[in-house]
Amino acid sequence: MLLQSIVTQGWRRIVQAAMGFGMAASLVACGGGGGSAGTTVFPPGSGGGTTTPTELTALSITGNATLANNGTDSLALKVTALTTGNAALVGKSVPVTFSVTSGAIVTAANTTTSSTDGTLAATVSLVDRTSRPITVTASSGAISQTFTFNVVDSVTGSKVADISLVADKTTLPNNGTQTVTLTATTLDSSRGTAGGAPLTFAVDDPAKSAFVTATGGATATDSATGQLKATVSLGASQANRTVKVTATSGTVSRQVSFDVVDSAAVTPVAADISIALDKSTIGNGGSDQVAVTVTAVDSSRNAVKDIDVTFSADANAVVVVGNSKTAADGTAKATVTIGADRSNRLVTVTAKSGTFVRQASFRVTGAKLQATLQPATLKVGDAGQVQYTLTDVNSNPMVGAAISVSGPGATAAATGTTDNRGQYLYSYVAVGSGPTQINAQAGGAIISSTVQIDAKLSDVPASTTIASATFTVAPSVVSVNAVGSKDNRSELRLLFLSDNNVPVPNVRVRIGLGENSSGTDGDIGSGKDGIVTSDANGVAVSSFIPGQRASSTDQVKIYACYAKDDTVESIANCPAGRKLYVTLTVVEQPLSISIGTDATIADGANGLTYVQRFTVLVVDAAGNPKSDVQLTPLLDLPTYSKGFWVYNAGLQSWVKFETLSCLAEDSAVTGFRNGTIETYNGVSEDVNHNGQLDPRKSDVAISMVGTTKTDANGTAVLRIEYPKSYGSWVEYSIRVGASGVVSPPASFGRVASPGYSMGSLIGNRQLTGVPVTAVKNEGEPAFRVSPYGQSASCSDPN
Predict the structure, then answer these.
(1) Taking 80 as the threshold, does the pLDDT of residue 4 lie above it?
(2) Residue 10 has pLDDT above 70, yes or no
(3) Per-residue buried b or exposed e for 445-467, using 16+ beta carbons within 10 Å of the residue's own CB
(4) pLDDT at 12
């Protein structure tokens, strides 16, 4: 390297003398990116006294595309002088000079190309071993050619030039309640991301206790973002100390550190909190609920653990708090139900943490107030009534709801509460004349009705065509009433629309039992053969009130005859074109419910699951089957099993070895089964620490087959379905409730009460079944190894 960095004309004779001894010329481009590229020691026209021949048309450079940065390897280049037709220029020597980007050295074998084959050899070696692209330029007079290759990591072969390593905390309490999250990003020489690069983490802990875990066990950065996250946990040691963590990708490494300090010295602080609801509207039936999630973050929008959060709700709603301290993901959760108040209203949920207050609202809907005028036309001084019925989203009566009504001649609104049928009867004496409004409000619902006083109710114009008249009953199956009770009833509803699909008001409708009057001891809410009138929405409403006598299926018929004026005919004389009817069934109270199975295990529709079917039977006190009973199934998974199956050649069958049975992790600690991982007194529900609750609710599914109601034989079919790999490893329990059934719900399997233990499970253990054909088949079954592991410890996920 005697001739390194010789660049001036004053040194030419020295160079030429050196070349006389066969020494190679070399070019140095110094510095780690701070200097400029070097120039050739043989400038054009001066190298050995040779000038660029006119026959030269181009130069070509060939060599490897990469060079490892181990410091010992070099890259060989071959420069070829070209003449017309891209043929090698032979017979003449062409002077060539080199330049190279910073941090590299070019060493040429000579100053000119060989006159024999037109080539010149050169090598490139590294001063700066950073992974990057390097460009070499070969020139002869006005002709030049460039060649670019990549310096790559000698260990991984990647283009990683640097690593950005960031920790979300600089201190950590020594009580082990928190962790440090690391974000490593592999970068190329332009500070762009170099994704998909191998990356490892190492911990330097004086206490030999801390450990680092890469997210998802990944060993390379993300191909798109170039990032890999990891979590550092302190382990058992509570000593105050400095912990260092190193991220390494090939020959590139970076290090961060954090201090372990007394836990009292570290108080989690949130820079912001947010609140989110999973629903904006819920029905007022009472079973629906809104999930509330509050998230605490720091100034960098990272989740913050152990932030205290308080929840509250207005408008008589009820809050059930899941966790009042934020979890590792920065969330605190609660659920909100409507409570005993079933009125339509806006509910505002408030979350507070320190000085932060966040609110979100949802609306309760479903309360419906209906009015029946009795009658719709009066004379001054006549007594009138309005029958109000208040129901919820499921058409169930809303009992004990406050109601206020303002009517004719009233100086103040009449107030009261709905009875056990959700009804309120408003009585008044007609005063004034003409159309008079009667307004009512109950359960957040408002209705306005018009009564005609000293005025004839307007007839439906003769030009109006009643194109659609619809008569419906709901429910179509209703239970008998006890003596003196009118609690059970079905709504009778008529809707009238014109040919333009516009509601038709003032349609007179006579509702009665007609020739079917002897088929039931029930009554009509508006009176047998009484007249009701359609309102502004084209709707006329009454009700059927069962007596104490049941009927055969669809054997109670209720008729309606309608007309445009008061000349509406009786049911017997009603023309067929204006006569409507509905049928319903009056049933006695069903008494008992049972569930059973034939234990047959079949393949699911997609061939990837197993299916087992069950039958549900509902009967009355005499043991007679009860049809059309609404059923509601519920599936619980109280335990799961670990182990494996082994094929026994002698038995020609697979044999199951169960190493352990474990309680379901959801509620294993707190008894609050809600599908989320909770911690109680420092103990997490996630007993095996695999980041989920085993068994998952989705491991087994339950559904009714065909219909949710019993058939004519009082039976219905339900089934459970599960992936084949879960066969024999999950314990299930089925409970089926039925509308109106006196006895408790039917159960199949062991019943798990809140806070249960393995010893407190009641009943016979039922496991997800597998077919005999799979057990007898030599081929390995999908359920050979438990998806929950094989070890004899519930705290071990393996």
Answers:
(1) no
(2) no
(3) bebebbbbbbeebeebeeebebe
(4) 37
Mean predicted confidence (pLDDT) in 661-672: 71
Amino acid symbol at 175: N
Type and span of the H or E element at 18: helix 12-20
User: Which pLDDT score is estimated for 723?
Assistant: 96
Write out the two tokens for 752.
């798990």
Instruction: Tell me how far apart the alpha carbons of residues 282 and 293 are, in angstroms, rounded to a whole number.
Output: 17
Q: Do residues 364 and 282 make contact, with C-beta atoms less than 8 angstroms apart? A: yes
DSSP symbol at 100: E
3-state helix, strand, coil in the chain (%, to 5): 5, 45, 50
Band of pLDDT at residue 603, cut at 50, 70 and 90: very high
Half-sphere exposure of 503 (CA within 13 A, CB side): 12
- CA–CA distance, 125 with 86 (Å, rounded to integer): 29
Distance CA 243, CA 97 (A): 53
Judged against a pLDDT cut of 50, whether residue 486 lies above it is answered with yes
Give the residue from 464, 524, 461, 453 showing the smallest Cα distance to 490: 524
Closest CA to 705 of 550, 625, 597: 597
pLDDT in the model for residue 624: 77
Query: Phi then psi for 444, rounded to 5 degrees?
Result: 80, 0
Q: Would you call 216 helix, strand, or coil by DSSP?
A: helix
How does pLDDT run across 97-110, given as a tens digit for each residue?
999 988 899 999 99
> Which residue's structure tokens are 């001739």?
3
Q: Which helix (H) or strand (E) holds 704?
A: strand 701-705
Residues paired with residue 87 on neighbouring β-strands, in sequence order: 83
Read off the tokens for 519: 């088929």
Q: Which strands form 281-283's sheet, in the order they lie side by side?
A: 281-283, 356-365, 345-353, 310-313
Biggest CA pair distance of the chain: 138
CA 781 remoteness from chain centre:
32
Q: How far is CA 520 from CA 244, 291, 559, 712, in A?
A: 86, 47, 14, 21
> According to the model, what pLDDT value does residue 668 have?
54
pLDDT-derived band at 646 (thresholds 50, 70, 90) equals: very high
What the block records as the tokens of 303 is 């989740």
What is the residue whose two structure tokens read 């299930």?
732
Facing residues of 609 across strands? 723
Query: 87-101, 150-164, 274-288, 416-430: which has the minimum mean pLDDT?
Result: 150-164
End-to-end CA, the chain: 62
Span 398-421, pLDDT tens digits: 999 999 999 887 778 899 999 988
DSSP code for 650: T
| Length of the chain in terms of residues written | 798
pLDDT of residue 669: 52
C-alpha Rg value of the chain to the nearest Å: 43
Q: Rounded distance, CA 169 to CA 322, Å?
A: 27
**Strand duo 345-353 + 356-365: pairing:** antiparallel
Whether the upstream peptide bond of residue 53 has omega within 30° of 0, thus cis, is no
CB-based contacts of 293, cutoff 8 Å, min separation 6: 275, 276, 278, 331, 332, 333
Answer whether 158's CB lies under 8 Å from 186's CB. yes
Q: Average pLDDT over the chain, rounded to whole?
A: 86
Strands 227-233 and 241-249: unpaired
Residue 776's φ and ψ, nearest 5 degrees, are -85, -10
Q: What amino acid occupies position 453?
A: I
Q: Are 177 and 268 in contact (CB under 8 A)?
A: no
Closest by alpha carbon to 63, among 125, 3, 112?
125
Structure tokens, 788:
């929950």
Q: Per residue in 495-523, is it b (16+ CB within 10 Å) or e — as a string?
A: bbbbeeeeebbbbbbbbbbbebeeebebb
pLDDT tier, 373 (very low <50, low <70, confident <90, very high otherwise): confident
Q: What is the pLDDT of residue 36?
A: 38
Residue 694 pLDDT greater than 70, yes or no: yes
